[in-house]
Design brief:
Order of helices and strands of chain B: EHEHEHEHEHEEEEHEHHEE
Number of helices of chain B: 8
Strand content of chain B: 15-25%
Structural class of chain A: alpha/beta
Shape of chain A: elongated
Structural class of chain B: alpha/beta
Low-confidence stretches of chain A: 1-8, 105-110, 136-147, 217-222
Largest interface: A-B, 40 and 34 residues
Oligomer: heterodimer
Radius of gyration of chain B: 18 Å
Chain lengths: ~650, ~240
């Protein structure tokens, strides 16, 4: 791997992507480097007209999709050559780094491949290049299709043969016939390497014609026109042909192997994307999108709808009419004898593949090939594998949903009974006191001494304050959890919130608090009202449990967050309850009668979560509880304003 | 009795009216009652009360709409009464010209203190009270002179404008938007962090203990209040 220096300017990373399965390495290298540097990245596939087979283009499209799922900007570019395509991209927005694949050089054409990098370097492009070696054990196959550009190839063929003929003839003057045969053989080998079997056969025929017609031997003192010579030449070229044939077969097998490799990677990628889906709609999106790219067919999933009938997914795209799935499903159970078991059911204009369930086919994958054709046979297996993956994902979602429902029901039930318990106790107690006091006060004149009357009145006031606080807490928690209460964050120094919380806490009675706030504490984006509630709840707890000993409130900056601790010298919280104290209505078994209702810390937790922060409790060294909270600053604060004007 | 201020209560809940009417009458105020927004507006035109207590949650007409119509012709003080689920509307009401707010439930002492501040403020416009003394804090708006415990405090022009804006409505809440507009002008709109930074430096210059402010009180998510009582006990829910 060539060393590449990090560019401080922070331009995007540009990845030049080929079509074979190994190119995914480039995508992953790009992803890794872009995340390390925190810069954008672009993945470009340069399509050179006439060089990519349709399958290769499809694969490149899938690799591009994978790249864009990883956060890259994926681009498909047409250009006369890979180098010019990449250069055009690099000029548009100067990249900080270009990543290219480097196949291990096996032959002269791979060296040409390597020269791409030199060509890029030679264009005065002031950008570091990173060449990622692809595992190049398999030889690169010649690319292209002879019938694509017959005129061009034919012209090249003629030039090569004529050059070989002239060169061979010039040599043959000195060293005779074997050299001529050898040079023509080399030309055939070259043609085969570059353009394949059909062209090579044409080359053999061409070379024979040249040999027999263009070099009439006797005039040049050579007996090349003689039959034995011609036969020997033909045998020689025949040998070359045999070699070409064998090479061609090898090439085909290699290509099949490569397609199989690409297909297994495609399945892996599909499986991974499906694993991330959490709804049927998402599965349908992923599956149909991948099918569209690879099979050139629009696709829909037909699944049983709740309450009978069928429903097509993705729901945003209307599906073409389809025969009743329940009538088609039995047809999939047994494929007709003699038919390919992988074949999809084809009812023009659509093809159908079953989606499995726990008991046989449970749904359909409906495909409408582009242009009204049928699906290519060599892709049937892959299509069935896709359908299976989709079925598995659907099955998983069904189970997850069932488990989720059960969990929510369970939790709701638990919360409901806890709420009932709290309501029956915590609401009734102050209500009973208020009702009792009020009825006493309404007794006939003179029944109560003045001091008792004032006492009862004070009790009504205190109990109603307690009731109001409890209801307020319940309301806040409900609104926080249901998302009705929106957190309105604004950058502000923590000391303002601390100050206003202390002010409110002290109005409920004297509370000794040592405040340690560094003057240079960075501002934090937070909702002042909610965060004040958090501090108020923590201070109220400390007051309840600390028994008059001083409470310590400290804040400090910690990297990209600000942390705060409220410490008391109360009995502390046993480690077993460190997590549970933040649950709704949870109260420590030995502190039931202390006036708390078990909502304060749950509210703190909900507020911190809404701030993407965190609250937890520790044992304070030397005894007591230490509540800590961490608030992310989420980036640098806005610039402080300048003092202007008089 | 004709010199006693007249207060109009616009409140639909009978229980609250039952508490408000005798409490205010016991203080010598003349009290008018309206059970809905339309009736409240009608009564306001008839009686032209010195102060309006307006509940935001009225059945027939949005409290904010009542406020908007009242402010269309009257500069008399309006106190908002809001329930907990109307917190967001408090800022809107204050920015529409309400003078102060009370959150249900509230106590009589708090209510009376807010009414006193609002009436005092309405009776003596800020221009006529160049001298403000709050505990150790002394503010001379005419000579632009601030001192704490007799020691002059040097304020930057912006800090002074901020303090002045609060002092002109001493004891009453001033919203972030109002302060930004008064001190920074239209350019300050939405830049609440400006305000917080200057409030921080102002507190460090004026407050004895900036972490426990006595004068410059934060009203979370709403704005600030210069403590009008000057005692360190800011008006608030009666907890003691």
């Amino acid at each position: 791997m060539n060393a590449a220096k990090a560019d401080p300017t922070g331009g995007p990373i540009l990845v030049g992507l080929g079509s074979d399965a190994r190119s995914l390495r480039l995508v992953h290298a790009g992803f890794r480097m872009a995340s390390e540097r925190g810069c954008p990245w672009r993945v470009v596939h340069v399509e050179v007209p006439g060089w990519n087979t349709p399958e290769e283009s499809d694969q490149a499209r899938v690799w591009l999709q994978e790249a864009s799922e990883l956060g890259a900007e994926a681009l498909w570019v047409r250009a006369p050559s890979v180098v010019s395509g990449l250069l055009a991209q690099a000029r548009g927005r100067t990249p900080s780094l270009i990543i290219l694949g480097l196949a291990r050089a096996r032959g002269p054409w791979d060296r040409l491949e390597r020269s791409r990098i030199h060509a890029l370097l030679g264009r005065h492009l002031d950008v570091p290049l990173l060449a990622v070696p692809l595992d190049g054990d398999a030889p690169r196959e010649p690319r292209g299709d002879v019938f694509r550009d017959l005129v061009g190839v034919g012209a090249a063929l003629a030039v090569i043969l004529v050059l070989a003929g002239i060169f061979g003839a010039a040599l043959a003057v000195e060293i005779g016939f074997p050299a001529l045969a050898l040079v023509f053989g080399l030309a055939i080998w070259f043609i085969h390497q570059r353009w394949g079997l059909a062209t090579a056969l044409a080359g053999v025929a061409g070379s024979l014609a040249l040999y027999a017609g263009v070099f009439p031997g006797p005039a040049r003192g050579l007996a090349v026109g003689d039959w034995p010579h011609l036969a020997a030449f033909a045998a020689n070229q025949g040998g070359v042909l045999l070699l070409v044939h064998l090479l061609e077969r090898l090439r085909r097998e290699y290509r099949a192997g490569r397609i199989a490799q690409a297909e297994s990677v495609l399945l892996m990628l599909l499986g991974r994307s499906l694993a991330r889906c959490s709804t049927i709609e998402e599965v349908a999106e992923v599956l149909t999108q991948r099918i569209q790219g690879l099979f050139h067919a629009e696709a829909w999933m037909r699944l049983p709808a709740e309450g009978g009938g069928w429903r097509s997914y993705p729901e945003g795209r209307p599906a073409p009419p389809c025969p009743a799935p329940e009538q088609m499903l039995p047809a999939f159970a047994a494929a007709p004898a003699g038919e390919d078991p992988l074949a999809p059911l084809h009812l023009a204009p659509c093809a159908y593949v079953p989606l499995g369930g726990p008991a046989g086919p449970a749904g359909l994958l409906q495909l409408r090939p582009a242009g009204g054709g049928s699906l290519p046979q060599h892709r049937w297996g892959l299509l069935q594998a896709f359908a299976t993956q989709g079925s598995l994902a659907l099955e998983r979602i069904r189970w997850v949903e069932a488990a989720q429902r059960a969990r929510v029901e369970n939790e709701t039930e638990r919360a409901r009974s806890a709420l009932l318990g709290a309501v029956s106790h915590d609401l009734r107690t102050p209500l009973a006191a208020i009702q009792g006091a009020a009825t006493s006060l309404l007794l006939p004149e003179g029944a109560l001494p003045e001091a008792s009357r004032r006492d009862l009145l004070a009790m009504i006031r205190d109990e109603s304050v307690r009731l109001a606080r409890l209801l307020g807490n319940l309301l806040d928690l409900t609104r926080l959890e249901s998302g009705v209460l929106r957190v309105q964050k604004a950058w502000q120094p923590l000391d303002e919130v601390v100050g206003s919380a202390l002010g409110r806490a002290e109005r409920e009675g004297p509370l000794p608090v040592d405040v340690v706030l560094p003057a240079d504490l960075p501002p934090v984006p937070l909702d002042g009202g909610l965060m004040e509630q958090v501090l108020l709840n923590l201070l109220a707890n400390a007051r309840r449990h600390a028994g008059g000993s001083p409470v310590r409130l400290e804040a400090w900056a910690a990297g990209d967050s600000v942390e705060l601790a409220v410490e008391d010298r109360g009995p502390g919280i046993p480690e077993a309850y460190h997590a549970r104290v933040f649950e709704k209505f949870f109260r420590m078994p030995d502190r039931q009668g202390d006036g708390g209702v078990g909502l304060g810390l749950a509210i703190c937790d909900a507020i911190l979560k809404a701030h993407e922060g965190r609250i937890w409790v520790e044992d304070r060294a030397g005894g007591g509880a230490r509540f800590r909270l961490s608030l992310p600053t989420g980036g640098p604060p806005p610039e402080p304003p300048l003092e202007t004007g008089p | 009795m004709m010199t006693q201020p007249q207060i109009l209560i616009i409140e639909d809940e009978a229980a609250l009216r039952r508490f408000l009417v005798p409490t205010l009458e016991a203080q010598g105020y003349r009290v008018e009652v309206a059970e809905g927004g339309h009736e409240g507006l009608r009564q306001a035109r008839t009686h032209n009360p010195d102060l309006v207590l307006l509940d935001l949650g009225l059945p027939d007409l949005d409290g904010l709409e009542v406020l908007r119509q009242l402010r269309g012709w009257s500069r008399k003080p309006i106190l908002i009464i809001s329930a907990r689920h109307q917190e967001g509307e408090k800022v809107a009401a204050l920015d529409l010209g309400a003078d102060d707010y009370l959150t249900k439930p509230f106590g009589a002492a708090e209510l009376l203190a807010r009414i006193r501040v609002a009436l005092r403020h309405a009776a003596r416009p800020a221009q006529d009270t160049p001298l403000l003394v709050l505990g150790a804090l002394r503010l001379d708006l005419e000579r632009r002179d601030v001192s704490v415990d007799g020691t002059p405090v040097h304020l930057t022009p912006l800090e002074y404008r901020l303090l002045e804006a609060l002092a002109r409505r001493a004891g009453q809440v001033v919203t972030h938007a109002q302060l930004l507009n008064e001190v920074w002008g239209p350019a300050g709109a939405g830049q609440t962090h400006y305000l917080r930074i200057y409030m921080g430096t102002l507190r460090r210059k004026i407050e004895v203990d900036p972490t426990r402010p006595r004068y410059l009180i934060t009203e979370p998510s709403i704005g600030y209040r210069l403590n009008g009582e000057g005692s360190g006990n800011r008006p608030g829910p009666e907890m003691e």
